[in-house]
Write a structure and sequence with these properties.
The protein contains no helices and ten strands. The chain is mainly beta.
């Protein structure tokens, strides 16, 4: 698990996790939503060969700010040269917020 953040209403959480063969072309990290009431997991992204790191949920739970990089340092587990994106949970659309940034956090 690379990042984890509770939803503001405590109905679940979002998390990013590495997946695929560590030395293969499918090695990636994607974001998922875990719903506590239903016990279900919903994928929010489907990147291949890109890596997500820390993430933060907006105060209204409709958006997630997250780190995204093209490479992962296998020794440290850190993203290499990440940018910060914002994902609209309802549409699944992600947009670049800040290039060359890391450790996103929402102010409430």
């Amino acid at each position: 698990v690379k990042g984890l953040a509770w939803l503001p209403d405590a109905s679940g959480f979002v998390y990013s996790v590495t997946e695929g063969d560590m030395f293969g072309d499918d090695h990636s990290a994607n974001m998922y939503l875990y719903d506590l009431e239903e016990g279900s997991v919903t994928p929010l992204t489907s990147y291949v060969g890109r890596f997500m790191g820390d993430l933060s949920v907006s105060g209204d739970g409709t958006q997630v700010a997250f780190e995204l990089g093209a490479d992962l340092d296998l020794l440290t587990g850190e993203l290499v040269d990440p940018d910060v994106y914002v994902l609209d949970v309802a549409s699944g659309e992600a947009r670049l917020l800040v290039a060359g940034a890391f450790s996103p956090a929402w102010s409430r």
